[in-house]
Predict the 3D structure of the following.
Amino acid sequence: MKTTAFLLPLALIAACSSAASPPDFTANTCDAVNAVLAAGSTDNPYSVFRGEPAMLGDRVLDDKWVANKAAFGETCQINIMRNMFGADIYTYSCDLYSSPGSLNKDEKEAEARAEINRVKDTIASCLGDDWVMDESTEDPDVEIYQKYDFEPVSGRPGADEFDFTVDPIYVEMSYTPFMRGRGGPSGWLAKVQFQEQRKMAE
């Protein structure tokens, strides 16, 4: 009995120690950008950032996790979207700003823009001349929209392999006084998202 009681805790400790640890970096820095890019370049993108499974009430959501470390903002998520135009899309996204409703619109717009500009400037300075940034300000589904896309000068990864490719990195802000599709909130939302795509898992 003593031996069994001693081995069980050891087994639990071994199981816990085998879990992946998040990369060591300070948020909102080039180290954070490089850590996310490195995690995205693996065969199983961003898996090192997977924390607890995401939940909807008491139900575990498939292929969604709360990130164990935030590169930007306070909370980040890992998602896998299966079978998207012949590929699996992996994302690491961080919430930068959220404010529901339409009150104090000008003040909240200034706050949201300050957040996305800070993150945009950090990413741009870290990536340097090997990457290019594109800006868009229109989306028919929202009233106010701002998006910055980043991709390598050499072209989007996977362009020679897939018919459809995702933005490697983007920073986005949007505002609508109405509820967003699928029950999304009204008001202001801003986020940064890193994306990778792989051949569909068998």
Observations:
- Helices lie at 2-17, 30-40, 105-127.
